[in-house]
Amino acid sequence: MNVFDYVRPASVAEAVAAASEGDAAFLAGGTNLLDLMKAGASHPARLVDITRLPGLDDIEFAADGTIRIGALVKNSDLARDAAFLAAAPAVAEALLAGASPQLRNAATIGGNLMQRTRCAYFYDPHSACNRREAGAGCDARGGDTRNHAVLGWTDACIATHPSDLCVPLVALDAVVEIAGPGGTREVALEVFHALPGETSAAETALLPGELITAVRLPAEAATFAPNARYLKLRERTSYAFALVSAAAALRIEDGRILEARLALGGVAAKPWRARDAERLLAGAAPTPEAFRRAADAALDGAHPSGDNAEKIELAARVAARALALAAAGTPERMPALPGSVFAPAGVNANGGSVHG
Amino acid sequence: MTLSLSLTVNGDRHEVHLEDARPTLLDVLRERLGLVGTKKGCDRGQCGACTVLVDGRRINSCLTLAMSVDGAEITTIEGVARNGAMHPVQAAFIDNDAFQCGYCTPGQIMSAIGLIAEGEAGGDPERIREGMSGNLCRCAAYPGITEAVRDATERLSQNQRKSA
Ligand SMILES: Cc1cc2nc3c(=O)[nH]c(=O)nc-3n(C[C@H](O)[C@H](O)[C@H](O)COP(=O)(O)OP(=O)(O)OC[C@H]3O[C@@H](n4cnc5c(N)ncnc54)[C@H](O)[C@@H]3O)c2cc1C
Ligand code: SF4
Ligand code: FES
Ligand code: FES
Fold it and tell me: Hey, which end of chain A has fewer CB within 10 Å, N or C?
């Protein structure tokens, strides 16, 4: 790890000022940043410790139903908050399907959005990587591409965004609140993470010095609470990143889907909102056939970025199954294995089979 | 420029001076305070051997910058026994044969103490396994670990009933 300057600002304004100049990085839980610094993949000259900034660790439920999650709220605290769990169960399930209990106790919401790709070649400073060094090339091409993209990739970069949390958040129209040198602004999570361009430079919408202060869920998010699930396929039952994942949320009335939300994880450099699939489901009956049609639409345009063509079919199956689980109803209690493909189906069944 | 921080570890307050901000909490515990019960397995958040409690919550000390926990209360494996008597989780690990080489054990025990305090797993082995999934055991003592955590959860709730 390189030597760095350490500062501990007392306010958001001070933090933004301290991060605006030179090669600075915000330090929150440190679970991604320190890992990257130990690997030698990241070497900021200054760490701006934001862990003590006041006012960023509340979960606020506004009278109009909006939920505002402070950027410093810990992943575990959000997942355990009873009112939040009732309003956004798929978000809680995604949080609990991610990392380990110890990591979730340290990891913050802002840090989770900002975590970098788990591409092994990005992590290895001896490999060529356009994300670390624009124009250097991409050693992932032709390499081990299990955790690489099948949607939205370019020749410059085939990495995926590894967050579980972001998948249901993007399905539920989350908005990112930002403070920066030029004041405050907000960006829809759907356009917050960038797909790689020709050179793969910017990874998110944040400009130098800008700090995430909160993530907001609109009131509408809670209308999906009775039928919302997160499903994550991984190479071991727990404590592993997603190979592919899906968040599904439905509003069902009289045996018809009024509105559907679907997003995929592990398939692209951003959490992938599947709007075409959502349109297909609006007004349809919640049947396995409808779910599979929607899942195929979600993967429309997918193509392998290496030896990973199987991810396309896996993602379609996980999406169809997530929709079926959502239709079957959000379980009364968080499953023992959150987000697991091995967990039994939900209770208070509304119809819809588990095997899409 | 030297940096300083204060930590209360197992009830004792320490002032630590650092040449720069790089040391993790794990390195400060082991190298500066001589508390080598907390183990360094992977040093990258992947194994749980370095688990300690910070202000009562279990975290991985290898991915925690020491400076960022300035002023915190830390509990390590060295601090869980009371008046020479083992912590009920320690006793349960011995009684249930929950280790072989023992390298992962301090982290397992600290994680189990954290899990039981969180109170969500109860006696359900599936929830215990999931709740302990942040701690790998290369000797694969998992059946014993699960049983030890179940046993300790029961002992601790009995103690609570007795003292109530
Ligand atoms: C072994 C392991 C397994 C994991 N498994 C999973 C998994 O299965 N699913 C999953 O989703 N995640 C997983 N993670 C990743 C984990 O969720 C992230 O490391 C964590 O969410 C990052 O949060 P943090 O607060 O620790 O961020 P930090 O490490 O402190 O910061 C991460 C990045 O975000 C920036 N940042 C932090 N806060 C802000 C802010 N408010 N505004 C702007 N920038 C900010 C930092 O500068 C840094 O670049 C895993 C991590 C490890 C080590
Ligand atoms: S896929 Fe992207 S992150 Fe991975 S090596 Fe290529 S350019 Fe770097
Ligand atoms: S040493 Fe910290 S998790 Fe392995
Ligand atoms: S007892 Fe040997 S690693 Fe767990």
Answer: N
Judge whether A288 and A269 are in contact, CB under 8 Å.
no
CATH code of the domain occupying B88-163:
1.10.150.120
CA distance A6 to B126: 42
Distances (CA, A) of A9 to A34, A237, B5, B68: 19, 40, 16, 12
Measured CA to CA, the distance from residue A235 to residue A134 in angstroms comes to: 31
Mutate which of B6, B18, B22, B70 to test chain A, going by most A C-beta atoms within 10 A?
B22
Given an 8 Å threshold on Cβ–Cβ distance, is B58 in contact with A34?
no
Q: Which of A38, A39, A100 sits opposite B48 (nearest CB)?
A: A100
A-chain CB neighbours of B108 within 8 Å are none
Q: Indicate the pTM of the whole model.
A: 0.97
User: Considering the domain A224-328, what is its CATH architecture?
Assistant: 2-Layer Sandwich (3.30)
Neighbours of B27 (CB within 10 A): 17
Alpha carbon of B45 to ligand 4 centroid (Å): 17
Q: Do A1 and B58 touch (CB under 8 A)?
A: no
At the top level of CATH, the class of A5-52 is alpha beta
Token pair in block for residue B39:
């183990």
Atom of ligand 2 nearest to the CA of A149: 1
CA distance A53 to A327: 41
CA angle B26, A92, A160 (to 5 degrees): 70
Predicted confidence at residue B1, as pLDDT, reads 63
CATH class of B3-76: alpha beta
**Ligand 3 contact via B46 beta carbon (within 6 Å):** yes
Strand partners, A186: A177
CA A110 to CA A108: how far, in whole Å? 6
Residue A344's pLDDT is 65
Q: What is the pLDDT of residue A132?
A: 94
Q: For tokens 């660790």, name the residue.
A: A57
Residues of chain B with CATH 3.10.20.30: 3-76
Contact A106 B24 (CB under 8 A): no
Burial class (CB in 10 A: 0-12, 13-18, 19+), A162: buried
Question: Residue B45 has which token pair?
Answer: 């958040």
User: Which chain A residues are within 8 Å of B63, Cβ to Cβ?
Assistant: 29-31, 34-35, 103, 106
pLDDT tens, A238-292? 999 999 999 999 999 999 999 999 999 999 999 999 999 999 999 999 999 999 9
